[in-house]
Amino acid sequence: MIRVGVDVGGTFTDIILERIGAGGEQSVVVTKVSSTPHDQSEGVVQGILNVCKLAGVEPGDIDAVFHGTTVATNIVIERGGARVGMITTRGFRDIMHMGRHKRPHNFSLQFDVPWQSKPLVKRRDRLVVTERILPPDGRIEVPLAEDEVKQAAELFAKRGMDAVIIGFLFSFLNDEHEQRAKEIVSSVLPDTYVCCSSEVVNSIREYERFSSTAMNAYIGPKTSAYLRKLEGRLRAAGVGGIIRIMQSNGGITTVEKSSELPIGLLMSGPAGGVIGGRWTGDNCGKSNIITIDIGGTSADIGVIQDGDLRIKNPRDTEVGLLPVLVPMIDIDAIGAGGGSIAYLDPGGAFRVGPRSAGAVPGPACYGKGGTEPTVTDAQVVLGRLDPEQFLGGDIKIDAALSETAIRDHIAEPLGLSLDDAALGILKIVNNNMALAINANSMAKGVDPRNFTLMGFGGAGPLHAVSLAEAIHAKDIISPVQPGITAATGLLVTDLQYEYTHPLLMVLDNASDADFKIVNDALDGLMEQAHQQLDADGIPREARRFQRIAECRYVGQGFELRAAMPDGTVDAGNAGTIIDSFYDEHKKIYGHAFRDQACELITLRLVATVAVETLALPELANGGRENPDEARLYSRRTVFDDGQAHDAPRYQREKLLAGDRVSGPAVVIQHNSTTIVPPGYVAQVMRFGDILIGRN
Amino acid sequence: MTQEVDPITLQVIGGALHSIADQMGTVLYRMSYSSIIRESQDLGAGLFDRDYNTLCESDSTPMHIGSLPGYLRGIEKSIPLDQWQPGDVVIHNHPYFGASHSPDIAIVMPVFFEDELVGFSANTAHHIDIGAATPGLIMDIPDVYAEGMLLNGIKLFEAGKRNDTMWKYIRDNTRVPSQVMNDLEAQIASAELGVARFQQLMEKYGKATVLRATRQLMDYTENMLRREIAKIPDGEYVAEGFLDDDGRNRGVTLPLKVTVRVAGDAVEVDLTGSSAQVPTAYNVPFEGSTKVACFFAFRALLLDTYTHSEYIPQNEGSFRPVKVTAPLGSIFNPIAPAAAEARFAQIQRIVDLIIKALAPVLPDKCTAGNAAVLSFAAYSGVRESGDYWVFLEVNEAAMGGRPQSDGPDTIEELMRNTRNNPLEDLGMHLPLICDRYEIRDDAAPGAGKFRGGAGVVKSQRFLGPGYMTHEADRHEDIPWGVFGGKPGAGGRVEIRNVHTGEVSQEPAKFSGKLTRAGDVVSYFSPCGGGYGDPLERDPDKVLDDVLDGFITRQHARDDYGVVLEEVDDGYGWKLDLNETRRLRAQLSAQ
Fold first, then answer.
1. Do A109 and B367 touch (CB under 8 A)?
2. Do B409 and A116 touch (CB under 8 A)?
């Protein structure tokens, strides 16, 4: 069995290959190649071929390729998507132009409104037809003018649209008109991608539903073309096996399903990191983890609670300021990373980021023309990054350039010593990250004191202990391969499909007839799920289902996820849902109400199938204290307390399970450096992850 | 002489304060019930010191930002500093004691640290009904007492113990008790969060350091604004306009005059010459609204967050360089007991006139005339159960053209920045159905090198009999063009009954109007004015606007000198560049 995970980032494409031999002997090989932004599949294929060579296997022997991609997100950000036409209800042509009518900046007159200046569907391509469905029951007030739909479709045919969407008001109550319009459009445009809003997102709120549908169509043709091209390139390179794609919800899916619903891929890139973090936590016996994936220009923050991924509140799921009503893992990105630039603004304030030196020119120490100091330069000046060890010496860095940059731009203007200026840069960037972690955790009912902070991405373990101190996390993990954690996540997650049904039903006084509606809807969702899994050839016993009731108090605007009882829902067990909603509300908002009625808005079914999980070889037991065998040399290193120590360097690949390294120390590996400050001790876990705690 | 906080710690504390205000705002809108708070985010939240300086404020609706110090100073008249106890919760909305207007109720909690009062955690939110003369909104009323409950520095909780009598009194005096009481709960939760987080911050860095840092952060923001003011040539800049009427005396317009005096790095806004106070609710509370509008104008003009990459902390420092003068007894500084609830359209005009006055010296930062209005509609009725339903809707408008870009269409402009209510959500809960929500097609946006924004039309149909109050303006005084741009369009209101076919044109303001089943109330917002000569507009953009239906082909020809020719590509038109050049030459020669 050979499985490969490929995670495409902005700068590097990370590859992990796992092989389990006939006798169960198992090995893991990792590598990276430069990403190929013009066509990600080039880098993906190159990376897979490279990793095969390193592992000594034939590409044809690969059983499965798992892929996390930013292709769909980039199409939205760069606005390089399809030409989409829309057919909508007469009187409501501009729902997507108005959005929620809130402007993106409060204190600005010159702001941009992206949904107006760069619309997913231009106004000229939004055509209205006569039809009217009325709330609250979905009855038809005005029948669909089918001739108008046909005329619109013919016009789109003439215009040569790449895709057509149908979005009618109140279609979440009754999709009859949308479905009929789709039939008509498809008969006129048999080869064009056509989708209805109630198919893409079957939920209340017209702007969010229409915009999500438009985004699905906008990214659809190019995303599926990319996936087909990837498949073609892999086959041409002799790579065998199935191909699976990471989705925003943290599950994997097939190429076919991704092409059908590409909107589910918008967080495909960052999802792998959080899942890799969960799996690493499992390996270390930790189920409450805050992950931070620190790259060159940004950091992604996620939370794992009781071993579960958190799904973002649908209110907050957006890409490029446009709403996306599909479940996404709760990941917050902030503009802080190794390349973040430190500077003094015109008012004299000391700032770090969000401006970044990027990959080009990169930090001053790269010597590629960057003169402004970055976070990486501060690490170099403080002796936390050894120039000759940077990416195993693959990239040459010059510490003198870091010193000059920090001295000229920060230290001298502020009258600080070089060390203090560099420490200041780290303190400010760490504070920015810590505040973002707090916003993603404490503000949502998570108490970091019960959590382990896991820092990964090349720069994660440089910051992890400082961040843990700032948020009062319990302890810290540096994963065995910090640079490749996201790719690892691809190999350890489940196949996953989601289905929803909108209801709007007050649970507290629901009748037997109401419960019948709930149970029938659940049966309908199960049937859809089984059909899909049958088509995938998944055996019945491998299928797992989670039923979720998305609820709110009557009159509230936002739903929370509540757990459902097993089996049939009735008056006897509906209290389980109400109680679960109460607990969730209390956790998220700090308050909950017993005297308010709970309204069920959406039923959601999550169908998962566990895939084989990655099993790393265990390290031999060392059980040593500060093992000399792994020691390289000692060098001046300045820690957060401002004290310089002659801190020993340890080679990570020579550390064994049970080894302990006391701070001050620096643990070095090819793609990452882990800082163990004074007062901390690092313990090597059985698979090579490092757990760091206070001494 | 106290020692300065070092720049690193300063940045760290500044970030923390920003984050606290943000979370206070988030808790408030997520927990609240009424759509005006949870969807529209008509709220503000922040921390304040003992001198009532704003230390940080949530980035929510600008109208609320900068209003809280006025509330705090008003509360001091009832509760002096030495009368606060830990666990107190004070409720306040009195427009003659600092409130922005009476529906914006503030919840204030003291922050104690080491047994000493160090500041306040406070928020404001717009409540949908406080028992005024008409449901939701008011216009034609005699005095401030007709605005509903006046809560003047009342302890809703005393040392952590709730005043149940007061709680019951409020519940009994609103038409929609469940929403109002739950919204108050949300406000209290938000204030509690602010108290706890402010205390944690002082535990971590020490009280003295935190308080010194807040003073330095205020100085920093103040200096950033002063640097920009200093770049404006000293002098007196004047702009004038007028309001439609006071909501009672039809046909009597009300003058507006704004004089901006720039001297060095300070500025004064003098509203002398504007209308005397009016006999209806169409007056503006001075502390909580007039001043806030002036503060906003300079921040948005000079420290525009879109063109400035650095985040400037939102605190008292941005208010200090701006002095505001309005004669007592004028519409912008009324004398009690004049009512002063319906004030939004007027303060929008203050901001817009400040922009107009300064446009000649700030051509790269200004806009052409904005809609500078707010359509605030209160729909209401009585359900079969006997309970009231009340729905407040804010209708967006449009902005004027700008130095580098067109004015945004259908957007919340200037002092407001709420979210609209999903039509589908409303339809599920109210006896009201939306029949139309689109870009206006009966009036073009102001032509210009950068055109004005297109206005909105929204039509709501009453399914049964009800009441309606509408607060707006700007049917008469049209948003202006600037630097050769053309004016936009005024607003209008029309009521059409779907059963009888009767149509009537209504003024922008009306109070407690009885509506019948089938009445469709349509609001057409103003369109923004144009910036720069329309003949200089990129012809491709003119073509785009025709294809997108923002303007007609005739308008393209008449105002922009752009000639189109027919083409059979499914869109209908392409540029005739030769004819366009010829026509433009001819038009510019005129």
1. yes
2. yes
**Spatial distance between the Cα atoms of A328 and A315, rounded to a whole number of angstroms:** 11
pTM value is: 0.92
For A396-420, what is the HEC assignment?
Answer: CCCHHHHHHHHHHHHHHHHCCCHHH
Residue A450: left if φ>0, alpha if ψ -120 to 50, beta else—which one?
A: alpha
Residue B37 corresponds to which amino acid? I
* Tokens coding A334: 């902030």
Q: Tell me how crowded residue A359 is: count the other CB atoms within 10 A of its CB.
A: 16
ipTM of the complex: 0.96
Distance from CA of B144 to the nearest CA of A (A): 30
**Structure-block tokens of residue A267:** 């967080």
SS (H, E, C) A634-679: EEEEECCCCCEEEEEEEEHHHCCECCEEECCEEEEECCEEEEECCC
The per-residue pLDDT string of chain B (590 residues; one tens digit each, 9 = 90 and over) reads 357 899 889 988 998 999 899 989 988 888 887 777 877 788 999 999 999 999 999 988 888 888 999 999 999 999 999 999 999 999 999 999 999 999 999 999 999 999 999 999 999 999 989 999 988 899 999 999 999 999 999 999 999 999 999 999 999 999 989 889 989 999 999 999 999 999 999 999 999 999 999 999 999 999 999 999 999 999 999 999 999 999 999 999 999 999 999 999 999 999 999 999 999 999 999 999 999 999 999 999 999 999 987 788 889 999 999 999 999 999 999 999 999 999 999 999 999 999 999 999 999 999 999 999 999 999 999 998 888 898 989 999 999 999 999 999 999 999 999 889 899 989 988 999 999 999 999 999 999 999 999 999 999 999 999 999 999 999 999 999 999 999 999 999 999 999 999 999 999 999 999 999 999 999 999 999 999 999 999 999 999 999 999 999 999 999 999 999 999 999 999 999 999 999 999 999 98
Separation of CA B244 from chain center: 19
The three-point CA angle A58-A60-A61 to 5° equals: 70
d(CA A444, CA A438): 9
Judge if the upstream peptide bond of residue B445 is cis by omega within 30 degrees of 0: no
Residues of A in contact with B366 (CB under 8 A): 109
d(CA A217, CA A196): 10
Instruction: Kindly state the tokens that stand for A323.
Output: 């709403």
Burial A29-45 (b: 16+ CB within 10 A, else e): bbbbbebbeeebbbbbb
Give the one of A105, A155, A558 whose C-beta lies nearest to B570's C-beta: A155
Q: Given the structure tokens 């605007």, which residue do they identify?
A: A557
Q: How far apart (Å, rounded) are the C-alpha atoms in residues A237 and A230? A: 10
Q: What torsion do the CA atoms of A411, A415, A420, A423 make, to the nearest 10 degrees? A: -50
* DSSP code, position B287: I
User: Given an 8 Å threshold on Cβ–Cβ distance, is B220 in contact with A107?
Assistant: no
Sign of the C-alpha dihedral computed for residues A509, A513, A514 and A516 taken in this order: positive
DSSP string, B40-83: T--EEEEEEETT--EEEE-SS-GGGTTTHHHHHHHHHTTS-GGG
Q: How many CA atoms lie within 13 A of B220 on its CB side?
A: 26
Of B31, B296, B420, the CB nearest to A101: B420
Q: In A, which residues are within 8 Å of B220 by CB distance?
A: 347-349
Dihedral angle computed from the Cα positions of residues A576, A580, A586 and A589, in that order, rounded to the nearest 10 degrees: -130
Q: Which residues have C-beta within 8 Å of that of residue A151, sequence separation ≥ 6?
A: none
DSSP structure string for B475-497: SSSPPPPBTTPPP-B--EEEEEE
- How many angstroms separate the CA of residue A505 from the nearest CA in chain B? 11
Rounded to an integer, what distance in angstroms lies between the CA atom of residue A677 and that of residue A683? 13
